[in-house]
Design brief:
Chain A: This is glutathione transferase. The complex is a heterodimer of chains A (174) and B (211). With 174 residues, chain A is mainly α. In chain A, 63% of the residues lie in helices and 5% in strands. Chain B folds into two domains: 4-79, Glutaredoxin; 91-202, Glutathione S-transferase Yfyf (Class Pi), Chain A, domain 2 (Up-down Bundle). Chain B has nine helices and four strands, in the order E-H-E-H-E-E-H-H-H-H-H-H-H. Classes of the chains: A mainly alpha (174), B alpha+beta (211).
Chain lengths: 174, 211
């Protein structure tokens, strides 16, 4: 509707308003908040230029390689019934394979590094919380995570952070 | 100081985007050829650098970095004081740069890449173009470009009145759409998008990679 489109012409959520400043695209919002409030709470960007670069790299991996197929699974299993459509099993199968391949790379990475960008929780890990939450808790695809030892440990760690649990509790469609 | 190594392919527009960024920042680099046609990007040597097997990847001293959008962000920050300033001058300007970078990555790139894949890659591999898929993605892209048209009627570049990473990120895919897919009308039919495209694609740091 016009009121929302005036904030975000792409008609998507979320959008933030900080004083006079309006910003959309959740990853850009997260980055803005991480920068603006650097020095308080969790440091989400690493401590050096190099660490920051690795945070950006794994943020891009989430946005470009993980998100697409993860969303396709959620779309078919969770959203299609709500919209009255039938599930495309072939699409689910293809997307599960794609997510699996990406998670194989994560498994290798997380066998050497506690979190994706290094030994510190960062935006890159945070970006994975929403879709993985749905895959595990609403799509019956938890085995994608639990079958990979280091991915599993990482998921259990990041999804048990109080800041996440506080919002995850409310993640239900009416 | 050793020059930055860019592992990539001269005809890969994402590689070219990173080279363009290095040119804009006046930074020396060495292009190490990853011969895509012979599958070099899937061989163990390259996978050791980038486990996703795609180009480009850079090496800067001890740092190995992939994902072209992350690479240009790193370069923009590391060389902030020299060459083109890609990040704006304030926290808010930088946030708008990232916002429009995300728009490119999430809304512009997927349909644009699908169009390119159907029109160029699929026939190259012996298949036939799925015209319905092309049409569907053209429709998606039209809607995105209508929003750009509105934005660029108020702002010279996407994030503001300064050329930024957000504009740079659009060079590869748009180059393909216009020059390899016959979809230049998507750009030329929109007055402000057209002016913006002519401006950014005529930057010498971009053009030099195609001569």
């Amino acid at each position: 509707k016009p009121q929302h489109l005036a904030l975000n012409p792409f008609g998507q959520i979320p959008v933030i308003q900080d004083g006079d400043f309006t910003l959309f695209e959740s990853r850009a919002i997260a980055k803005y908040l991480a920068k603006k409030y650097m020095g308080q709470g969790t440091d989400l960007l690493g401590s050096t230029l190099t660490e920051r670069a690795l945070v950006e790299q794994w943020c891009e991996v989430e946005g470009q390689s993980f998100r697409g197929p993860a969303f396709s699974i959620i779309e078919q299993i969770l959203l299609a019934p709500i919209l009255g459509d039938s599930r495309d099993e072939e699409a689910v199968k293809i997307s599960v394979e794609k997510v699996g391949k990406v998670l194989d790379v994560y498994e290798e990475r997380l066998s050497k590094s506690k979190y994706l960008a290094g030994d510190f929780f960062s935006l890159a890990d945070l970006q994975h919380l929403p879709y993985t939450h749905y895959l595990v808790n609403a799509c019956g695809k938890g085995d994608l995570i639990s079958s990979r030892k280091h991915v599993k440990a990482w998921w259990e760690d990041i999804s048990s952070r109080p800041a996440w649990k506080k919002v995850a509790e409310k993640m239900k469609f009416k | 100081m050793a020059a930055i190594k860019v592992h990539g392919y001269h005809a890969s527009t994402l590689t070219v985007m990173v080279l363009c960024c290095l040119n804009e920042k006046e930074v020396e680099y060495e292009l190490v050829l990853v011969d895509l046609p012979t599958g070099a990007h899937k061989k163990p040597e390259y996978l050791a650098l980038n486990p996703f097997g795609v180009v480009p990847t850079i090496q800067d001293g001890d740092l190995t970095l992939y994902e072209s959008r992350a690479i240009i962000r790193y370069l923009a920050k590391k060389f902030q004081g020299q060459g083109t300033n890609f990040l704006g001058s304030t926290l808010s300007e930088e946030a708008l740069v990232y916002q429009w970078c995300e728009v490119e990555g999430q809304s512009f790139n997927p349909p644009a890449l699908s169009i390119f894949s159907q029109i160029v890659f699929v026939p190259m591999r012996g298949g036939s173009t799925d015209e319905a898929a092309v049409e569907m993605n053209v429709e998606k892209l039209e809607k995105v470009l209508d929003i750009y048209e509105e934005r660029l009627s108020k702002s010279k570049y996407l994030a503001g009145d300064f050329f930024s990473l957000a504009d740079l990120q659009h060079l590869p895919c748009t180059h393909y759409l216009v020059n390899a897919c016959g979809k230049g009308d998507l750009i030329s039919s929109r007055k402000h998008v057209n002016a913006w495209w002519e401006d950014i694609s005529s930057r010498p740091t971009w053009k030099i990679n195609f001569t």
